[in-house]
Amino acid sequence: MKRKKNKGFNLIELLVVVAIIGILASVGVVAYSGYTASAKKGAAKSNHNSVKKWIQNELQKCNVGERTSMNGNLTCANRATEQTVVTAVIASLATNSDDMINPYGSADAVTSTANTGCVAGNDPIFEGTVYVSADATNNEIDIHTCIANPTGATGEEASEWEMSDSVSNAG
Description:
single chain; alpha+beta; four-stranded mixed beta sheet; two-stranded antiparallel ribbon; 6 strands; about 40% helix; about 15% strand
């Protein structure tokens, strides 16, 4: 009687393959979440810098003789107060802007709502939102963005979770 040769894999071989696939999948998930976190930070930084440069460029239009700027929301002759400029920025960029979205979710990408600051324990911290406010004392428009939620870990620096800039409104 001829013995029949089994074709296929035995149970041990299958268990080893499943274990290897599980290990590779767990490493991939951890790496993927790290990549997405750094991509969100990068997008928030990009939004911050875009808003800053956009405000500078739009205010420069007034300096070279244009009558309006900021998509027609700012009349150059009326830009004397910083709050007028902030209102025009928000009217131009805040509501469902095609130019930028908040990488962290549904919050507005740009707002003038007061920011309580990017400090561990503050609630809420709207990561990715660019806050634009008026600084009448220094004749500037302040731009502040929480690029990540601070963890409060020892040695963590503010530059890891926030960006701040100012744009002069002097004409």
